[in-house]
Write a structure and sequence with these properties.
Elements (H helix, E strand, L loop, with lengths): L2 H22 L2 H27 L28 H16 L1
Length: 98
């Protein structure tokens, strides 16, 4: 039996149960349910639409220098000195940007 078939069976069972429960309701109670669900749907829709018109919060940006060229020589280094080189770069960045 495929997964699609078993999900369909569960869906049908839920559908018929829900239909049975709705048929037991009085017309006034059905009306209340319909209006309640419609109001919730309207509220969610309005919130989603309002997000397009509300200003977005800007995230604080890091002070990245623009139009500045960093002149440094290209050095070749071995695998052993990678950790030392990274700590030097990190230290330089902290000194420059705080």
């Amino acid at each position: 039996m495929s997964a699609k078939h078993s999900f369909y069976r569960y869906y049908l069972r839920l559908h018929y149960w829900l239909r049975e429960q709705c048929d037991r309701l009085s017309p006034k109670a059905r009306k209340r349910w319909v209006y309640g669900i419609s109001a919730a749907y309207l509220l969610c829709s309005l919130v989603m639409i309002a997000q397009f018109f509300l200003p977005k919060e800007e995230e604080p940006r890091l002070p990245i220098p623009k139009n500045q060229y960093i002149d440094s020589s290209i050095r070749s280094f071995g695998v052993d000195s990678i950790g030392e080189r990274l700590s030097t770069i990190t230290h330089q960045v902290k000194q420059t940007y705080g």
